[in-house]
Amino acid sequence: MDRRLRLRGTEDEPLLRSLRHTGRTFYVFIAALLIIMGWFLYAWYIQLTQGLGVSDMRTPVGAAWGVYIANFVFFVGIAHGGIALAAAIRLLKLYKYLPVARIGEVLTVISIMMAGLSITIDMGRPDRIFNIVMYWPQRVGWSSLSWDVTVIIIYFTLSTAYLWLTMRKDLVLCSTKFPRLAWIYKPLLVGYRADEEVKIERMAWWLSIAIVFLIVMLSGGVVPWIFGLLPSRPGWFSALAGPYFLTAALGSAFAMVIVIAFILRRVYNWQTQIGPAVFKGLGTFLGIITLFYIYLILAEQLTMNYAAPIAELLISEKLFTGEFAPIFWPMLVLGFFAPAMMFVVQTVRSEWFSVNRTFLAAIIISVAFWIKRFLIVVPSLLRPLLPFPEGTYDPSWLEWSIVVGVFAIAILLYTLFLKIFPIVELSEE
Amino acid sequence: MIDLLLRLTDSSIPVDAVAAEGAAEFSGSGTIGFIVLAIIIGPVVLLTLAAMFGAPRNFRIPGLFVGSVILLIGGLVASLAVIGRLLQFIVPQ
Amino acid sequence: MKQIGRREFIKYSGGLVGLGLLGEYTLFPWPRRGSIGEPSQPATEVTKGRVIDGPGTTVDSHNKFAMVIDVGACIGCRRCMWACKEENNTPDAISPLWIEAFEVKSDVSVTGHPSPADLKTGATTSYTQSPLPGRWYITAHCNHCANPPCVKVCPTGATHREADGLVLMDYTKCIGCRLCVVACPYSARRFNWWQGAVPSDKVNPLVPVRPVGVVEKCTFCVHRTRRGQLPRCVEVCPVRAKHFGNINDPESEVAKLLNSEMAFRLLEEINTEPNIWYITRGKKWTED
Q1: Which residue has the higher pLDDT, B22 or C247?
Q2: Which fold, C38-288?
Q3: What is the pLDDT of residue A303?
Q4: Which residues from C are below 8 Å from B83, CB to CB?
Q5: Which residues of A touch B43 (CB under 8 A)?
Q6: Contact by Cβ (8 Å): A11, A414
Q7: Using an 8 Å Cβ cutoff, are A279 and A266 in contact?
Q8: Is residue A33 a contact partner of residue A397, using CB atoms and an 8 Å limit?
Q9: Predicted confidence (pLDDT) per residue in B34-49, tens digit
Q10: How far is residue C86 from each of residues C56, C89, C205, C221, C233, measured CA to CA in Å?
């Protein structure tokens, strides 16, 4: 009762609520996340000491890559939309969406870290991870994985620097309001001068272009090329891989931004700060992207069916009528088509718009995109080009523990950020 | 044109002028990777330079930016080495 | 608001970090910038602590090793598979083995190459009796391709091609990412999902024992072939279906066979330029 009064009426900085008010629910939430993270560490420890055999991945009959790689691709994907939104806001002057810009930027930085974690977990010898760096000069001329590592590191660096530079002016206010956290704010404010904002805005503008270009070249470039350049796997080997992955990245990322913005808005009562117009616009965009993605699925599957070589036909068959049909069809119809249609209707008939429904649709689309990543990685691996027997892949409890654990860590890091830094641009005040 | 593309991607065709006698050197020189990365990193570098040296003139912020980039990349590489070393105690060698 | 030493801070920390990185880069013993074909260290060099294929062997770049398999002769006995396992310290944890034997029916595949289409006519790797009438037996393993996708994608160069045509592994560099496994069109590569154990009285000292989490595959018995012997699978075949040699030598068995017989290679159109040829000179065994 008391808390509500404080929240509504008497404060000067509602956007600082996330830093000020830490209730009991919050601690319960963190405790739950820590428990999940503990379980994740236990599962990973088992895997590290016994080998990747504790998963259900197998060679050559079976999937050499599974949910870990699907997770990696998913996190790289959502890492893109986050900062794409911030970049679009600056380049296209869509200031209406400024309140959710940083929500997206933080999503980007954390997601890239989770992508890196997912890849490390998938390695057979993660203790040799430095070999990727050590032999980079020799291999970057050939290996698509080296290209991926290179571009991801550059992207992560630019995104983090971008987040930092655009956050500085808010940190000035924070260091006065929250002197206990000054030891964090002060180093980040190194060299601060009040007039730096002009230069930073200008730099952010140029960097936005660079980042948008990198998004296309990463999510629609080096990551899909790990799959799309390999003729050994029917279903993967396709020029469509680039646009396919890029669309999925933007879609899943925007869905995630909607989800996070909605949750934060509800928890901290930011109904005016993050207005319904933001959700309407993001929802429209998400609807268009999802419809475009359905079109890409159609194009791909038609090509794998019409007069396709048997290898491609068999993979497509797995999705349409085979062992993955019970996942594929619900994903397509309920996971993509229905929410996309909802967004279209909502856009066309403004009176039917609802923030709650937007949130629901965004969650469904996010889950559908994760499932789609799984359906990209696994089916093609179960039917090789030589007449091996059919492989199966049924992820073990350990694999699921690790996947859920990575999500828990992501949420944990995001929540930590929330408590230290303002998640919505303060200049709105 | 076709043989240029073939030479870029086929690692078994010697790229240099001295053609292999028998099966001497296998030298796809890995040019394709450099082309791909040049296409990706080139514009990024140019845009970043524009960001740093474009108007308004300021040397403090670009300096901080470069510093942060170096710290981040250096930190990332260092943390990979550290993580690898730590995991050596857990993963059976 | 108190400001931390702006210029000084940036100058010194940035300078220190930059100097450190530069020093590391110049002083670090970067491996020689190699191309796809060159080994990252000469095979004769004693490489302390490195686990590589063919330790102590020398590369003769005039060689180009190739194998010719006579499909008509193969009776699918799988002796080659088990001999290979014994020879190469392959633990029980690696399953199936480096060599795989397919039983296919003759109406679809043998003049082309086995493909998923063969599944429609009941192609299998788990046949229990052989040879059966109307069936052909085709063994496949690493083809040691001249344009190998597995070598291209390896991010550390653990998989590399040597000057005598062999595609070999440096198990110390391998990080277990399995990109080579998914890149191989022949599904020829295997991964150590578990820590394999080979009983110490059965270990072949010429072949490295691989740790958990690395990829491995057929090496054309590099420890034998570079010393003038035949690969173990070729040696034990009871019907002499496999032939091995230096294709650059016109007097070698393989060169002569390829000169006189029409041969096919697996998945030729993928342009991997494999070095295993399959010839069909008619069925050698009779059905009784």
Answers
A1: C247
A2: Alpha-Beta Plaits (3.30.70)
A3: 95
A4: none
A5: 210, 213
A6: no
A7: no
A8: no
A9: 999 999 999 999 999 9
A10: 20, 6, 12, 12, 10
The 10 Å Cβ neighbour count of residue A359 is 20
Domains along the sequence of chain A with CATH? 18-428 (1.20.1630.10)
pLDDT over 60 at A322, yes or no? yes
Greatest C-alpha distance within chain C: 97
Cα torsion angle, C262, C266, C272, C274, sign = negative
Look at A139 and C126 and tell me if their CB atoms are within 8 Å.
no
Q: Which amino acid is at A45?
A: Y
Q: Does C155 touch chain A (CB under 8 A)?
A: yes
pLDDT at residue A19, as a whole number: 81
Is residue A69 over pLDDT 90?
Answer: yes
Instruction: Output the DSSP codes for A238-290.
Output: -TTHHHHHHHHHHHHHHHHHHHHHHHHHHHHT-TTTS-HHHHHHHHHHHHHHH
Domain residue spans in chain B?
Answer: 1-54, 56-93
C17 contact residues in B (CB cutoff 8 A): 67, 70-71, 74
pLDDT(A200) > 70: yes
Interface of C with A in 208-267 (CB under 8 A): 211-215, 266-267
Ranges of chain C with pLDDT below 70: 1-49, 106-112, 284, 286-288
ipTM: 0.89
Between CA A194 and CA A259 the distance in angstroms is: 34
Q: Any idea where the domains of chain C sit in the sequence? A: 38-288
Nearest CA to A170 among A197, A207, A204, A208? Answer: A197
Residue A52, chain C, CB below 8 Å: the answer is: yes
Task: Kindly report the nearest CA distance between residue B22 and chain A, in angstroms.
Answer: 24
A181 vs C142: which has the higher pLDDT: C142
Percentage above 90 pLDDT, chain A = 72
Interface test with A, best of B46, B58, B69, B70 (most A CBs within 10 A): B58
Chain B hits for A203, CB-CB cut-off 8 Å, are 51-52, 54, 61-62, 65
Mean pLDDT calculated for residue range A74-91:
90
- End-to-end CA distance of chain C, in Å? 97
Give chains near B: 3+ CB pairs under 8 A.
Answer: A, C
* Nearest-by-CA chain C residue for B29: C35
Q: Return the pLDDT at B26.
A: 37
| pLDDT at A78 exceeding the cut of 80 | yes
Given a contact cutoff of 8 angstroms between Cβ atoms, the answer to whether C192 and C92 are in contact is no
User: Residue C118 has what pLDDT?
Assistant: 83
pTM, whole model, 2 decimals?
0.88
